[in-house]
Design brief:
eight-stranded antiparallel β-sheet; about 45% strand
Length: about 160
């Protein structure tokens, strides 16, 4: 399992996920910067993601939905702030309504993804900060920790399949 730690910080309303992968930084970067690869791991394993729009540039957006085992769809939206390939990405991460717009009343996180070379592989640190402790608790209550752990775990499967 690539996730080595998940730390919730109530004081600054953030959750930090640290993961290690046996692959170069450029390979892990493609998991974020290629829509078809993103679909293979973003979201819990039983909720596959479908990317609906992908404008991967600063100021661009990534729209997607995840489909539950029962066929229910849950939308998401990234508003990309900055891209420093292949080491850093920042974006606003929001829930989306059926039309792909930010969902009313749902938390919006500011996400920072940092990739660094580590031990011959890559360390990925993803920090998502919410506007309040209540927003952080809301996403934690919705299963964010389990969902992230499951989603990131799928990256190992992708890398292993490539190595085979």
């Amino acid at each position: 399992m690539p996730v080595t730690s998940i730390d919730k910080n109530v004081d600054d309303h953030s959750i930090v996920v640290t993961s290690d992968f046996p692959a170069p930084v450029e390979r892990i970067w493609r998991l974020w910067s290629d829509a078809r690869q993103l679909e293979q791991w973003w979201g819990p394993p039983t909720y596959p993601a479908t990317v609906t729009d992908f404008d991967f540039v600063p100021g661009g957006r990534v729209g997607y939905f995840m489909t539950s085992p029962e066929g229910e769809k849950f939308g998401g939206l990234w508003s990309l702030d900055s891209i420093e390939a292949p080491y850093r990405l920042t974006f606003k991460d929001a829930f989306a309504d059926d039309n792909g717009n930010p969902a009313e009343g749902m938390p919006v996180g500011t996400c920072v993804v940092e990739l660094t070379e580590s031990g011959g592989g890559t360390r990925m640190v993803t920090t998502t900060t919410y506007g309040s402790a209540e927003d952080l608790q809301k996403v934690v209550d919705m299963g964010m920790e389990e969902g992230l752990t499951g989603a990131i775990g799928q990256i190992d499967e992708m890398l292993a399949a490539e190595a085979a």
